Amino acid sequence: QVQLVESGGGLVQPGGSLRLSCAASGSIFSIYSMSWYHQAPGKHRELVAEITNSGSTNYADSVRGRFTISRDSAKNTMYLQMNSLKPEDTAVYYCYIVDVTRSGRFAYWGQGTQVTVSS
What we know:
Elements: E1 2-7, E2 10-12, E3 18-26, E4 31-39, E5 46-52, E6 57-59, E7 67-72, E8 77-82, E9 91-101, E10 104-109, E11 113-117
Parallel strand pairs: 2-11
Antiparallel strand pairs: 1-3, 3-8, 4-5, 4-9, 5-6, 7-8, 9-10, 9-11
């Protein structure tokens, strides 16, 4: 089994910054991609940013230029640097990974960390 633990969420004023972390542990074989999703109250869960094992990145239009995703493959850890935060960034942020094993691809979700942007 694979466990994902997110950290770094909290309350921040508009224009402020936060850095989220997601640490993967357990029976990891080979992580293909790591992603951040967020879900605001009453809305669907949406992709924020993703990074593949080759280092390719993809961002939602709403965060491009403000957020930066990165990963430390040796530590199976992913980060999301969030700058110039806006109230509309308020949501629960979830870590999501795709692990490739001999038996196929398996996806895992973290438990989520709350980010609140408010004055």
